[in-house]
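Input sequence (89 aa), recorded before submission:
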Amino acid sequence: RASHTESSVVVKAVLDEQARMWCDSIIKVPLHVEGVVAEQVNKNILLSPKARAVSIPKLEVESHDVSCSHGAAVSQLNEEQLFYLQSRG
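Predicted structure, token format:
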């Protein structure tokens, strides 16, 4: 809500068995707010075929002099990657 501010939100999750993750996030920049730099990132790793992750990043930007970004990723590890992680403790 204030000009010349910064915001960074990073959410990371590792989900196993029947775990569920829901990330519904929004960056709002109202009109007449300037010089804002904001980002939101959500990254999820699924260790089980039954695990689920839902990521809904949103931007609501009404001003022009801003730099805002968002991103999301959901991925499963293949057997080789999982073996590597488990062998390293």
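Checked by second reader. The CA atoms of residues 44 and 74 lie 5 Å apart.
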